[in-house]
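FAQ: What does the model actually see?

It sees only this:
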Amino acid sequence: MNKQHAQHQIWRKLGLLSIVMVLLLLAACGSKDNSTTNDESNAQQQEQTTEQTTEQPAAEQPGATVYPLTLKDDSGTEITLDKAPARIVTLAPSETEIAFAIGAGDSVVGVDEYSNYPEQANAIDKVGDTTTNIEKVTALQPDLILASVTMNTQAIEQLRALKLNVYATEPKTYDAVIEKIKNIGVLLDKQQGAADVADRMSQVKADIESKVASADKPSVLVEFSPGWTVGKGEFMDELLTLAGGTNVAQGNGWYEFDSEQIVKSNPQVIVYSSWYEEPNAILEGINARPAWKVIDAVKNNRLVEVPQDPLSRVGPRLAEGLQSLAKAIHPELFQ
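And it is asked to produce this:
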């Protein structure tokens, strides 16, 4: 599979990422942890950039957003909203899922072709796939466009040139995804909905960390697209660690692995993503590599399929992706 084809297939599932977008999608700038101090007024919280926000205690109820509101996104660009957005366009599946999860689904008027969750997203006007249809987006007259820094680079530039508000993100860790959701909650005046999602995601992470804390850390290969894995600096690598595994991928970012190097690394578990058609092309590829028969994961039948979308989309369902990884690596702890 050549690089361009691999990227297209990944984007199909992550729409990603998502990740899916393989390197392009997931090779973006990392977002930084943001939070909001207890003593600050609600208006002061809004004026801070996403890079300066401090986490509020769980007991404190989020207030309403005060407009005008200025926030800086992961591309380093500040946007200012005069009022809560009534018309939202999302250019990546993760952004679509966030909008619906925090209670802003009724305001979404346009989505990308790969936004397939929740079910309501399928009925919304489509604005393109890996290439955004700028004319369709502008025709929808959006107050706010939610995008991925890496996946939607060209579209972001074009839309900003038209003076449209684009909030672009590229989180590199699980906690950064949580902060991203909270910041979008502020933008959309859906802070309570965002807080509920953030609390659930944080609880899932805490529960898994507690369960795997004293367990062995088996060596694991994650193959999310045929011949592709993920190394240092990306959220999926961190997910693997949080799930109680040790990543055999020693490279950086999303890359096409060397099969001989995987044999030398000898992973105890191979986790592969579900695919958009049967038979699963990833599993077919694993079984077609004769040299891999000596790998412990293959010999011991520790080849585990996990759902791709939750694993690869940097939105609310990343918690489910983390759970699926943990169960694949430590089935004995998650009966």
